[in-house]
Design goal:
By secondary structure, the chain is an alpha+beta fold. It has one domain (about 5-135): Arc Repressor Mutant, subunit A, CATH 1.10.10. The protein is built from five helices and six strands. The chain has helices at about 5-10, 15-30, 35-45, 50-65, 110-120, and strands spanning about 35, 65-70, 80, 85-95, 100, 125-130. Strands 1-3-2 form a three-stranded antiparallel β-sheet. The protein has a three-stranded mixed β-sheet with strand order 5-4-6, with no helix packed on it. Helix 2 crosses helix 3 (about 35-45) and helix 3 (about 35-45) crosses helix 4 (about 50-65). The longest helix is centred in the N-terminal third of the chain and has 13 residues, at about 15-30. It is flat, with a radius of gyration of 18 Å.
């Protein structure tokens, strides 16, 4: 059983066909899918699952900190990322909008300090860095193109 399904079950939720299909789509892609991408994949893999069920499942998974919506610079459409260990880090290229995963966290000490200082219990975090990927290092930034 996937960690997402295990977390749903542990939280007391039923493992419905919709929840399984949405999580499977996200896990298969490694996250970074828009709701439209998830809907397309679920429709193909589990044709009986409706659009509303997909969106309700995305909302539930977000509330349970299993996934998080993130936003690129050039879009208002969220891209959903998996939060397998309660955190996720990536760099978003400001030229091509590519997401590059960052495996090292290094924020555990900061999280513990925030908890101690503020008297809270953190459940997770998302860190986004913005820059140019290796393919776009020499490309002009969006909006900086000089007209011919």
């Amino acid at each position: 059983m996937s960690s997402g399904l295990e977390r749903l079950k542990t939280a007391g939720y039923k493992l419905t066909k919709a929840r399984q299909a949405v999580l499977h789509a996200l896990e298969l892609a490694g996250g970074h899918l828009t709701s439209t991408d998830v809907l397309d994949q679920v429709t193909e893999a589990a044709p009986g699952v409706g659009r509303a069920s997909v969106f309700r499942t995305l909302d539930l998974l977000t509330r349970l900190n299993i996934i998080r919506p993130t936003y690129g610079l050039n879009t208002i459409t969220p891209t959903y990322v998996l939060m397998p260990d309660g955190h996720h880090h990536h760099m978003i290229c400001v030229v091509c909008n590519r997401f590059i995963e960052i495996e090292e966290c290094g924020l555990e000490a900061m999280a513990r300090q925030i908890e101690a200082t503020m008297g809270v219990k953190l459940l997770g975090h998302v860190v986004e860095f913005y820059g140019r990927c290796t393919r776009c290092l020499d490309a002009p930034l969006p909006g900086d193109e000089t007209p011919p």
